Amino acid sequence: MNATIEKFGYPETLIREYRHWVVMLRPAQVTTGSLVLAAKSEATAFGELAPEAFAEQANVVADIEAMLKAAVNFDKINYLMLMMVDPQVHFHVFPRYAGDRSVAGLTIADSGWPGPPDLKSAIPLDQAKVRDVVRFLKGHMPNGAARD
């Protein structure tokens, strides 16, 4: 795995691994169910990814959205590709909603709604809460196993 994936807590934060991507819980939750979608390659520019990674990304995004819809019933979803600190290709995925949402004993209001996500409001999770939320979200991931 690349350094960006490791920085976001892999393997403890892993929800699902695909051939070219990993879906992980974001250890600092901006909204309930915040994720990191990270390419497994060492690419530091989106355009450097292999064509197969782009093709697979369609399935990964569909799985993410189905999982988060079932788990937190978001109103909108934001994918932010920031890559200013962590260089390998990755997106921060924020389910967006009016009010708050709860999963596995974690309740977070979307303090930026209806504007951009309020990244400064992120709530860091301890290891026990990471395990609980990862387990909860895995239970809502469609198809039970990664698609190839």
What do you see in this structure?
There is one protein chain. The protein is an alpha+beta fold and 148 residues long. It has a single domain, classed as HIT-like (HIT family, subunit A, 2-Layer Sandwich). It is built from 3 helices and 9 strands. A 5-stranded antiparallel sheet has the order 1-2-4-6-5. The longest helix is centred in the middle third of the chain and has 22 residues. The radius of gyration is 14 Å and the shape is globular.
Fold topology:
Elements: H1 3-7, E1 14-17, E2 21-25, E3 28-29, E4 35-39, H2 51-72, E5 76-80, E6 90-96, E7 100-103, E8 106-109, E9 123-124, H3 127-138
Antiparallel strand pairs: 1-2, 2-4, 3-9, 4-6, 5-6, 7-8
